[in-house]
From TrEMBL, chain A:
This is non-specific serine/threonine protein kinase. It is an enzyme of class 2 (transferase). SMART domains: S_TKc. Its cofactor is Mg(2+). It comes from Bos mutus (wild yak). Its main location: cytoplasm. It catalyses: L-threonyl-[protein] + ATP = O-phospho-L-threonyl-[protein] + ADP + H(+); L-seryl-[protein] + ATP = O-phospho-L-seryl-[protein] + ADP + H(+). Belongs to the protein kinase superfamily. AGC Ser/Thr protein kinase family.
């Protein structure tokens, strides 16, 4: 017999309601992950069998491989229970900074593997209602097992921060590259644009629209090939995306004439000088954002191609087409693009390039040499990045266990389903067996 | 078993949750130890996951499970659960349900965070009594299910989380029976539970 009288829903506190919703979502996610993991496990087994078949192994060798594989899987099970934390990584260097935290080059202490660690401050995200976006980024990084997308290996959290442990791309980002070069040649541009087309297409096929393609989010691997990062993360709701932000501005900003009258060389210099600052600001830059994203009328995949066109312009001309002294001006120019998108006569580029609509053979460009070759002296070489001053890693003030339940008790269960571990990353001690690597 | 009128919003939600929880996975198969792998590691991962989920589930009804509503931790009129540990309660002691749950969750947390019981370093063996400890943990977790189903099922239904709890319970049940981790005696309250909306897993 039920002993408790039930309380009607209406009397439920909003805190309880939230907790219930979160629990349901967590359980649903758990079971859908369970399915996914079950399938992935079977895939790995099949892959192993296939590779062994291809290599024509003898039964005895097969048996050994199978048991080695089972051992790896067991190891994965065990590692799933390990509570990774900050203390498992040695921080080597700050390599990037964003609006909501920083990116560091780190080394996992036990394996010696090098990763990029993105640190995001929870408080900032809660305050700016970025939690959904973080989840979106985590989800896409997890889902996209694609060679066009920066791979994520682990994620964990403590009281203060979320940590994303991603593959380290030693080539730096496109923004830094563009800051270093005056312009790119048409060939170089063609290469990067072609790769970015494939990259964007691959996330579109997963059903994601990036909405914030910009040079800061195009990373370069050790061979100089492009990968996408930063999925509509915090940037998704950066002020730059909000029309109200521009509406409420004082429209009679007089400053713009100086910029307007500069020749393209000066424009490019000014642009490059201020570029890094723009990247850090929570306002962000509207330079690459499609007009329809500003308008409340809805947008589709095409907005990513718009951004790519802007980047292509910047590569060839030295600054993006709508760049101005202030984001407000830039915004106006974007909205008025039919008049404002012009090509400076002093920087001649081909008619073909001007068309901005380029068609590429769907070849596999990664086998070709990159447009600009990347130089890397060692695995932790950061010479392709700008210099960043050392900072105190954002340490939690109170010692806490990393246990998810502790977090839950501490009411930051908004982040509860956040922790993630990838098979490949966890078992990657020493060499990764070829059948576990992503198809390359 | 509770039914919702087709066509109502509740029914649609219910159906949706059911679908996402039941999609494409046979839980009975999912709990089986994959060929060539270590039983202890397989069990350990499951125990930690079950603990986390049961804890979450209890969290959703905990404000209706009070000293007043449940002065004695029980599973219906026939089963009374007493708490015992190595510290304050050396003898089995009758406690209120919320107090019992608190002690239980804390105790399990200590167990699974104890490297000597649940080693996380690759290569460190499990202790000899590992499965014994696990049996104790799982039997106690099972009591949470029993209590929630028998005393707080109304609340679960009201929250629309039957499908969630049921799936979790079924998963748990298949797991413990697959590896014989709970005595049949402990599972007895199940009979009366089935009448209250708990799925018949067999
Ligand atoms: N996986 C990586 N490997 C190497 N460098 C990286 C990696 N991820 C990010 N970076 C560097 O850190 C910089 C900032 O990263 P990112 O753009 O992800 O930060 P952010 O917090 O998202 O910033 P914002 O939200 O302002 O775009 C990048 O421009 C790049 O230089």
């Amino acid at each position: 017999m039920a002993m408790t009288g039930s309380t009607p829903c209406s009397s439920m506190s909003s805190h309880t309601k939230e907790r219930v919703t979160m629990t349901k979502v967590t359980l649903e996610n758990f079971y859908s992950n369970l399915i996914a993991q079950h399938e992935e496990r079977e895939m790995r087994q099949k892959k192993l069998e296939k590779v062994m078949e291809e290599e024509g192994l003898k039964d005895e060798e097969k048996r050994l491989r199978r048991s080695a594989h089972a051992r790896k899987e067991t190891e994965f099970l065990r590692l799933k229970r390990t509570r990774l934390g900050l203390e498992d990584f040695e921080s080597l260097k700050v390599i990037g900074r964003g609006a909501f935290g920083e990116v560091r080059l780190v080394q996992k202490k036990d394996t010696g593997h090098v990763y990029a660690m993105k640190i995001l401050r929870k408080a900032d995200m809660l305050e700016k209602e970025q939690v959904g976006h973080i989840r979106a980024e985590r989800d896409i990084l997890v889902e996209a097992d694609s060679l066009w997308v920066v791979k994520m290996f682990y994620s964990f959290q403590d009281k203060l921060n979320l940590y994303l442990i991603m593959e380290f791309l030693p080539g730096g980002d496109m923004m830094t590259l563009l800051m270093k070069k005056d312009t790119l040649t048409e060939e170089e541009t063609q290469f990067y644009i072609a790769e970015t087309v494939l990259a964007i297409d691959s996330i579109h096929q997963l059903g994601f629209i990036h909405r914030d393609i910009k040079p800061d989010n195009l990373l370069l691997d050790s061979k100089g090939h492009v990968k996408l990062s930063d999925f509509g993360l915090c940037t998704g709701l950066k002020k730059a995306h909000r029309t109200e932000f521009y509406r409420n501005l004082n429209h009679s900003l007089p400053s713009d004439f100086t910029f307007q009258n500069m020749n393209s060389k000066r424009k490019a210099e000014t642009w490059k000088r201020n570029r890094r600052q723009l990247a850090f600001s929570t306002v962000g830059t509207p330079d690459y954002i499609a007009p329809e994203v500003f308008m409340q009328t809805g947008y589709n995949k095409l907005c990513d191609w718009w951004s790519l066109g802007v980047i292509m312009y910047e590569m060839l001309i030295g600054y993006p087409p709508f760049c101005s002294e202030t984001p407000q001006e830039t915004y106006k120019k974007v909205m008025n693009w039919k008049e404002t998108l012009t090509f400076p006569p002093e920087v001649p580029i081909s008619e073909k390039a001007k068309d901005l609509i380029l068609r590429y053979q769907r070849t596999f460009p990664l086998e070709r040499p990159a447009a600009i070759s990347i130089e890397i002296k060692s695995i932790d070489d950061t010479s392709n990045f700008d210099e960043f001053p050392e900072s105190d890693i954002l340490k939690p003030t109170v010692a806490t266990s990393n246990h998810p339940d502790t977090d839950y008790k501490n009411k930051d269960w908004v982040f509860i389903n956040y922790t993630y571990k990838r098979f490949e990353g966890l078992t990657a001690r020493g060499a990764i067996p070829s059948y576990m690597k992503a198809a390359k | 078993k509770r039914k919702f009128e087709p066509g109502t919003q509740r029914f649609e939600l219910h159906k949706k949750a059911q679908a996402s929880l039941n999609a494409g996975l046979d839980l009975k198969l999912a709990v089986q130890l994959p060929a060539g792998e270590e039983l202890n590691d397989w069990v350990a991962v499951h125990v930690v996951d079950f603990f986390n989920r049961v804890n979450l589930i209890y969290g959703t009804i905990s404000d209706g499970c009070t000293e007043r509503s449940c002065p004695i931790m029980s599973g219906g009129p026939k089963y009374e659960y007493r708490w015992q540990d190595e510290n304050k309660f050396r003898r089995p002691t009758a406690l209120s349900a919320p107090r019992y749950m608190d002690l239980l969750m804390d105790w399990i947390e200590v167990q699974i965070n104890n490297e000597d019981v649940f080693p996380t370093n690759v290569g460190t063996p499990f202790p000899k009594n590992f499965l014994q400890v696990v049996k104790k943990i799982l039997s106690r977790l099972f009591r949470v299910f029993v209590h929630v189903y028998i005393h707080h099922f109304d609340r679960i239904a009201q929250l629309g989380s039957e499908a969630h709890v049921n799936t979790c319970y079924k998963h748990f049940y298949y797991f413990v029976t697959e590896f014989g981790l709970i005595d049949t005696k402990e599972l007895e309250p199940l009979v009366s539970m089935e009448r209250r909306g708990c799925p018949d897993p067999v």
